[in-house]
Amino acid sequence: MKREIISKLKSIVGKEQLTTAPEELLCYSYDGTGREYPPEAVVFPADTGEISAIMQLANAASFPVVPRGAGSGMTGGALPVAGGVVIALNRLNRILEIDEANQVAVVEPGVITGDLRKTLEKKGLYYPPDPASLKFCTMGGNVAECAGGPSAVKYGVTRDYVLGLEVVLPDGRIIQTGVRTAKGVVGYDLTRLFIGSEGTLGIITRITVRVIPHPGAKKTFLILCKSIMQAASLVAEILAKHRPCTLEYMDRTAILIVKEKLPFALAKGTEALLLLEVDGDAPSVAMQAAALQEFLTAKKDLLSVMQAEKADEIDALWAARRAVSPAAFNLKPHKISEDVVVPRSRIPDLVLFVENLAAENGLTIFTFGHAGDGNIHVNIMLDKNVPREAAGAEIATKALFAQVIKLGGTLSGEHGVGITKAAYLSLELDAASLDVMQGIKKFFDPNNILNPGKIFPTR
Hints:
Blueprint: H1 3-13, E1 18-19, H2 22-25, E2 41-43, H3 48-61, E3 65-68, E4 85-88, E5 95-99, E6 104-107, H4 113-121, E7 125-126, H5 139-145, H6 152-155, E8 162-168, E9 174-178, H7 190-194, E10 203-210, E11 212-213, E12 217-225, H8 228-241, E13 246-251, H9 252-257, E14 272-280, H10 282-297, E15 304-308, H11 311-327, E16 334-341, H12 347-361, E17 364-370, E18 375-382, H13 387-406, H14 425-428, H15 431-444
Parallel strand pairs: 2-4, 3-4
Antiparallel strand pairs: 1-2, 5-6, 6-10, 7-11, 8-9, 8-10, 12-14, 12-15, 13-14, 13-17, 16-18, 17-18
């Protein structure tokens, strides 16, 4: 990058808030995919005005800019694939307002999701979206990817809570979208347009979200099943009569890699488990738990139904669930993590297909995830240095995506497209839809400087 550009960037953010040191650039070259694309510089702006000035400079000088939160994304959305400048948003980390009367919170994009939830809980409020990485992922990244989490089965995903945004456009203009009221239909819904746009249309600098009263009470169940198909089929039966706030699923391999973290001994022959919770006020939870216990007890073929009574048991169960993805690397050095979604009634069809897919390609493939909303994480484990495994993984990925579409599903529930799924977009989207989306990108970013190379297939 030209010295003149570096000098101008320093004049915007200050000398101490820019780095070009190779060892520091490396820290901003990767994300949850494990792929690396080093930027040419990283800047750490303090506010919206500095980001606006950076974008004006980038638009005039035509260099790529990539906004970055915690770098926990799983599809390469924050990777600087074209080099250029990474805008690290960690300094914009303030909870600006909590309006208890109107149940609204206003935050900057660098606020850690888990920190917001803890702050709200002290005031008796609740922000439901809870991605597995909530202890370190940021609100800006959650909005950019439309993150979900275990609670989505009852409460929905990020887009269901975002009321409005402040966004810096690629040319440096600053816009305000949405409202902070329960209703608002003035003009186009630009807020929804930016949610899930993966930093390709603008840089989010302020987020207004609705929050709800904290549910207060919760009961947690662990259900052990004899087979994957039994667990998958049970999901639809549970949801036909009950409304859990979380309903998570793990297959045999997922269980084995976190077995030591589980607070309960597993019954012999356990091939899958369901982690289920109900929440609400204390009387409501007692009624829900009793009804659920009665329903499950009647299922004589289940291996075990356990209720976690102690806080440390509940914490251990969730620690094990959230540890599945990182613990997978104990199996193989590389992982292809897909977050496909199918209608809940088709989950048994999907897991059976994945089992056969693994056998046919000689691969270790395991599944876990948000069974309550059909969002199953399919993890293909491999060593990329072994040609047979690398080739088999590519074949398996294509076959998985084709089957998901055949089952009436979608290629991504919460990870986004990034670079890892771009080549498969045409499986789900028709040519006209793709043209419209690319037209929107061109309208907002005619010079293609903001997070280039993401979402759309390269020609």
